[in-house]
Every structure is written in C-alpha cells, then in structure tokens.
Amino acid sequence: MKSFVFIQSEAGVINKNSLEALCGIQKLSSRPSITAITFDEQSVETLSGYNIDRVLHLKNPLLQSYNPLAYVEAIQKIIQTEQPNLFAFGHTYEARDWVPRLSARLDIPFISDCTKIRFENNTIFTRHIYQGKIACDLTSSSETTILSIQSGSYRSDEVDSGSSATVENQEVDIVEDKRISQEDKFQESKGTVDLANSDLIVSIGRGIEKEENIPIAEELAQAIGAEIGSSRPVVDYGWVPHDRQIGSSGHIVSPKLYLAVGISGAVQHQVGMKGSEAIIAINKDKNAPIFEIADIGIVGDIFEIIPKLTAAIKEHKQKS
Ligand SMILES: Cc1cc2nc3c(=O)[nH]c(=O)nc-3n(C[C@H](O)[C@H](O)[C@H](O)COP(=O)(O)OP(=O)(O)OC[C@H]3O[C@@H](n4cnc5c(N)ncnc54)[C@H](O)[C@@H]3O)c2cc1C
Fold first, then answer.
1. The pTM of the whole model exceeds 0.85
2. Does residue 94 contact residue 21 with C-beta atoms inside 8 Å?
3. Is the CB of residue 295 below 6 angstroms from any atom belonging to ligand 1?
4. If DSSP codes are grouped into helix, strand and coil, which group holds residue 147?
5. Domain 2-171, CATH among 3.40.50.300, 1.10.3810.10, 3.90.330.10, 3.40.50.620
6. For a FRET experiment, which of 82, 105, 134, 203 has its CA 20 to 30 Å from that of 145?
7. Tell me: the pLDDT tens digits for 190-199?
C-alpha cells in the first residue's frame, strides 16, 4: 500500500496536526510505504529524519505561501501520476479549506476529521458523527482515498524517527489562477493564546460559579506553568475570551496534562480534549461524565481542593 502525508509547514515550522497524521499512518499495522510531501524547503531536513520512505518537496513560487488553487493543482498532479492508496492530511483550518476542492476536482472520496485509522484486510477510518455522540467506521472502495486526521487523535511526539528516507525535489508547473487572490496574512491579536500547542492546560467549567473566582484557577495554572482553557458556558458568560474555549465549537487540544475543574464533561467538551495525554478532573459530582475519560478523578469541591493543590505545588517548588 502506498501512502502520502501532506505536511503543512511554514519556514521550517511544521504543523503539529500534520505530524499527528503522519503518526497515524506510521501506526497502521500493515505499514504502507510513506511519502511526506511538503512545499517548504526548510522542513525537508526534519522530515527526512522520520521513519518514512521518501520526502517529496514540490517547488513552485506559487506554493511559497498559502494558495488554495495552486495547492490543489500541485497535489492533483501528484495524485494523478503517483496514484497513492491513501493521501492523509492533518484536519487543519487550511486543509478544511482546500482539500474538499481537491477531492471534488479528482472525484475521489475525502473522509474528513478521522479519529483513528486501522488496517483489517482493508483500511478502516473512524470518525465521529452527531456532535461526537457516535463513532462510525468507514471503508472506501476507491483506489485512492483522501483523509484528514482530527487534532489530538495521534501524538506528534510519537512520530518514529528513521534515517533511510530519500529526498526528492520536484519542480511543478502551475498555471496561476487569479480567481482567489491573497490579502495580507491575518495577524492574530496580541496575547492570543495557542492552546493547540500548550503542554499544560487548566480548564475552567461552570463549577467556578462566577468570574471573581477565576483567579483561583489562574493561580494554579501559574504555579504549574499552564494555560487557562474553559468550557463553553464560561465563554458564553463573557468570563474568558473565546480563544480559550475547548470543544466542538472551540479548540481541539492534546496537552500532556489537562486539568478539568468544575467541568461536567459534556460530549461537545470531550471532543476537544479527550486526546490529552493525561486528564485530571475535579468535580463534586461523582457521576460526572468527565470521570469516564479522566486518568485521575478527584471527587470534591474545587474551592477546597484548588487552593490546597496550588499551595502544595508552590511549597514543593520552593523546596526543590
Ligand atoms: C452545538 C453545540 C456546541 C457546543 N460546543 C461546546 C464546546 O465547544 N465546548 C464546551 O465546553 N461545550 C460546548 N457545548 C456545550 C456543552 O453541551 C455543555 O453544555 C458544556 O460543555 C457544559 O459546560 P460545563 O461542564 O462547564 O458546565 P456544566 O455542565 O454545568 O457542569 C458544571 C460541573 O461543575 C461541577 N461543579 C459545580 N460546582 C462545583 C464545585 N464547587 N466543585 C467541583 N465541581 C463543581 C458540577 O458537578 C458539574 O459537573 C456545545 C453545545 C452545543 C449544543
């Protein structure tokens, strides 16, 4: 089986979700041949250090910055000439924008936002439907299938290293299509948090009760060097900005530690954080759904537990 993974990157900074997609392909029990495909020269060296067969660097000035029409044309040519069985992407905002167009252009299926892929005689793609309530398995009868992997479904730090990848640079002809023109790149406002790349997150739910109580959680976050995340109600009340919301209508995160305080664990919230490496939940309701996915569950009152936890962490830091 022949697989390609598109690596989204800019000036050598590789998108974490692309690496997660690569990890998913590497973990297939019947390991396919893997080609990592990039438009970014500065990423080639890093990619060649992974356990893959080939790095294919496509070169054209139109591919230097995000250009959906040029991207489609370049990858369309590669799929037509190389005919891979699987063509994987991270389910990034860019991929959501241009990959459906690629799928339509080539008339091949795009199974988006997969949480798992596995091989059992055939490749099986798992994706969630109905707001994450049901996981369904899909197979494809197409010679080539495009898929995207949901952020957090695999771990970027589990991508296997290797030393036998060949590197191929290929010029690609692209006819410039001016139907979509580029504006200046969107600049996120100063101080915007990058939760998707945070290793530690303390996430606040409605259990925090009121805005004035948020500093209790912030102090804990500060003590362990974590970012603050939140459930949707906390954002809806206007207590924290939307860029901190985690869940189906917020960010999908996969930190090393996710500390959920006063969060019930509704399915729409779980969708955004269940890929975390370790989940600690504090909730006074022992039946809260968050405990079903927590590695450590603490049944109790956050207003009693958090100050004690923060104090203990500070004391420990002082001693060490
Ligand atoms: C289309 C759609 C999209 C959505 N998108 C998102 C999303 O992106 N993210 C998201 O989070 N939600 C989302 N939701 C909302 C989601 O369904 C839940 O309503 C929400 O996640 C609940 O947030 P919560 O856990 O903070 O609040 P609640 O469900 O009210 O839970 C509060 C928890 O705090 C506990 N608690 C209360 N006081 C204390 C205390 N003193 N100590 C300890 N524990 C305490 C309670 O036992 C309870 O379990 C979406 C809903 C819809 C319909």
1. no
2. no
3. no
4. strand
5. 3.40.50.620
6. 134
7. 567 888 888 9
